[in-house]
Amino acid sequence: MFNFVARSLRIKLLLIFLLMLLAFTSVHLVIRQHWTIPLLIALEVENDKKEIYKLNSALDRVFNELETLVYDNAVWDELYNVIIKQDLAYLKDNFLIPHSFVSLKINGIMFFDKEQNLINELAIDKHNNPQSTSPFTALSSNLKSKLLISRQEVINNGEQAMFKQGIVSINDQLMLFVGGSILPSSGEGEFAGTMFIWSYFDDKIASQLSEITQNPVSYVAFNEFLTLEPLIDFSTIKNVEQIRTNSPHIHVMFNDIFDKPALVLGFPTPKRMFNDSIFEASMVVALLLSLIILLVIYFVITVMIIVPLHKLRTTVREVMDKGDYQLSTKIERADEIGRLALLIDILFNKVNIQQTALKHNNLQLKRLSDTDPLTSIANRRALMQVLEHINEQAMPISVIMLDVDHFKKYNDGYGHQQGDQALKNLAKTLKQHTLRETDIVARYGGEEFAVILLNTSQNDAFAIALSMCKAIEALSIEHKYSCTSSYITASFGVTSCEQFDNFSIETLFHQADSALYQAKRQGRNCVVRFSSKATKHAV
User: Fold this and answer.
1) Active-site residue numbers?
2) Residue 329: its pLDDT value, please?
């Protein structure tokens, strides 16, 4: 069975198409399960948050209506003078009118002087019956600071109108309130007291919220919310990632003026606008259409590719059996199959061309790998390759090692870009002092260079190093951070090997590096040749 599949391109294509269909189905399921559905749920959560924000906006609108009522009356010269004079009769005739509370959807009005002492009040109960006192009649100092306006607060507000509003629970009764500063009609001036309006959070408030949101809104005090349904804390709504449960309602918790849970508002859970099951009708239809398309593609590929390839294989086999390379594939097409038939006839010539190009590319690659990209001179790798092929004919051989003095300070002071340009100029100068083709100047690493001089004695190498040292300083590249010179300078170490039997790359570089170290110790900007006692030559 395996051999049959391995020898038949048609069967392979059929299996590939079946695997493609399976892969398409799997990918679709994975995408739907781990991306599409979570994305839809995330969008649903955002939409539910909008509904919650809408509910909060409706609550703000109720507060704003009460605040407008307070502002229209509290910031008024006539009421201002009444409060100053504490005209109780005027307040009773014009404000403390029980039947007006029903139309205003409030349960009480209170007036306090600037010392937060009660002047007069009127309240009605939930059945609109007048009451001589209200839950706010005897307020503690803590509640007064939260509910009423103080003279200092008005001063801090620039003696302009200010308001306090919120939810408060007193004697297990949940209420809304708005308090406003009593000021002259201009909205600025000496503070006279506080006008305080409040309302039980009851059916009338819920009705207002339902009318604003166009959605039925239920309410309950937090301490009376006894169901096990989850609550959404409005103060943390931005960080909530899941809102809906199996409950038909969404319940939102609001805090009171002490930032403690006080009110729970609920509204019906919006209808889900998508199907969250893994399989759906559209997916089944898509799979069936995909199967049909794959079968059509299989038939087209068989006619256009499998049959011509079979004919081409037959022709190639015949050529191999007979050894007659004059036979033609007899396939005349302008597409890939036709070009494949043509390529068979020019294969060997093409391979030869490619081999030639490959050799050329290898030479180019070797040249690039042996060159330092910054200075365009040989790099350390190229230097070592030359030394590894040294023979007796190159003796004596000399090595010059040099290091740019205080180059880190130069880089730090003038910047790396100018430092790179200085290295380029130094490399060019070094090349100018090595005129023979066998002389090699290489960047050894960072600001360190090496010069290999074949058939050069130590004395001659020492002379060349001296000229290089002078030439570098003569470039007059300013280096105000150097403690050696006002210009860029370099320190040199020179060594040589006279006999091939004594030649060692490690020894040679160790000696040159040792001489370079001596040059640095002896003041820099000088040339030192290697010996048991290094000899300095200052520039």
Assistant:
1) 447
2) 66
